[in-house]
Specification:
By secondary structure, the chain is α+β, with helices and mostly antiparallel strands. Among the domains are: 80 residues, no CATH class; 98 residues, no CATH class; 89 residues, Immunoglobulin-like, CATH 2.60.40. It is built from 9 helices and 7 strands, in the order αααααααααβββββββ.
């Protein structure tokens, strides 16, 4: 037997204490018993240690998973709020813990795709601002096809934006077309094409059409009004009022047209009446006072014959035909020598022109005189 304390060898197997160090000696039986206990105890301890290690590892991994899931949730929330760079930062953080997490990698890919498509949408908006609607529509068609390949809720909002952009393109195209239209009928036809748009956009375009209808009808009506074409002006305004009912500007313009028409008709009637009076007075003058004596001269030759020469002037407004001058020649004592008449030449005397007449009275003697009794004429040339 050996002492477990000092290692001394004891020949007596039944000794209880070491003769060298005085420590109590363990018997073989006790040692065997302890050895047996250790044989059973070590596996149990190892098992417990393994369990503890597995439990600790599980707790750690669970914490890591929870953190990664929390980062994933934050990334998804940030992405849905439009904070895409922040979402990518959360994903990068999550992948630093779980670089083999495929779902997180997929979400990273989706967000990057979304950012690229969103930038493409901004390019579409630039084309719309520059009124490059054809190319903008082509870009929109491409965007819609790419969005259809992605089922993420993130693309629902983007699809809505793309659809809004597509509607804006349609609105822009229609606005451009409206700007080219120049008649009420053309605008009315365009008005009937707006029912495919939503209420707000259709309302905006309708208002643009109504505004242009008012502008066009006002301009055309003013032109007709200036030309005194009152009925045409009213028709133009009424054509627009079919669509822009109770428009104050057009109603006011129509009222002004009607007022000016009444005033013009009254003035026109007064002008006609005045013109008729003037024409009547003119006709009376042409009939009675148009041809006036301009000059007359009587010369008696050495034989006592009187040579009469004179001029008449047409002071009227119409030609005078077949002018006849009636006269009386008297001697120096006032005794009538001759009642005569003579024609004026030319036969047709234009307004403002003078005509001549002449006559010879024989044996009138010296100091004879001539008196004009009457001048007659016609306003129409005799036929036949």
């Amino acid at each position: 037997m050996f002492c477990t304390s000092c290692g001394a060898n004891h020949l007596e197997n039944n000794a209880n204490y070491c003769s060298h160090c005085g420590k109590r000696l363990e018997s073989k039986k006790v040692k065997n018993k302890k050895r047996t206990i250790l044989v059973y105890l070590m596996p149990l301890i190892s098992f417990i240690i393994v369990i503890l290690l597995l439990f600790s590892t599980n707790i750690y991994e669970s914490k890591v998973n929870a953190k990664v899931l929390a980062l994933q949730e934050k990334a998804e929330k940030a992405a849905l709020e439009g904070k895409y760079q922040k979402a990518l930062a959360y994903i990068e953080d999550g992948l630093s813990y779980r670089n083999d997490y495929e779902i997180l990698k997929k979400e990273q890919e989706i967000i990057n795709t979304f950012i690229d498509l969103n930038e493409d949408l901004h390019e579409v908006e630039k084309k719309m601002i520059n009124e490059d609607f054809d190319n903008a529509q082509k870009e929109i068609n491409l965007l819609k096809r790419q969005i259809d390949l992605n089922r993420s809720p993130l693309f629902v909002n983007l699809l809505n934006q793309v659809e809004q952009a597509e509607t804006s393109v349609k609105v822009g195209e229609i606005k451009g077309e409206i700007n080219q239209l120049t008649t009420i009928d053309e605008l009315a036809d365009k008005l009937s094409t707006l029912y495919s748009l939503n209420i707000q956009e259709a309302s905006e375009l309708k208002q643009q059409i109504y505004t242009k209808m008012v502008m066009i009808s006002s301009i055309e009506a003013e032109k007709s009004l200036e030309a005194k074409h009152f009925n045409q002006a009213v028709l133009v305004v009424d054509a627009a009022l079919q669509y822009v009912v109770n428009n104050e500007k057009l109603l006011s313009l129509k009222e002004r047209i009607i007022t000016e028409k009444a005033s013009f008709e009254k003035e026109e009637q007064e002008r006609i009446e005045k013109a008729m009076k003037v024409a009547k007075a003119e006709e009376e003058r042409n009939l009675t006072k148009a041809v006036q004596l301009a000059s007359i001269e009587l010369k008696v030759d050495k034989y006592g014959d009187a040579y009469i020469e004179g001029k008449v002037k047409n002071s009227g407004t119409k030609p005078a035909y077949s002018i006849i001058v009636e006269f009386t020649v008297v001697d120096k004592n006032g005794k009538k020598v001759e009642d005569g008449k003579t024609n004026v030449f030319p036969n047709k005397l234009q307004p403002g022109k003078t005509g001549d007449f002449e006559h010879v009275t024989y044996s009138a003697k010296e100091n004879a005189k001539v008196e004009i009794n009457n001048i007659s004429w016609l306003l129409e040339e005799k036929k036949g």
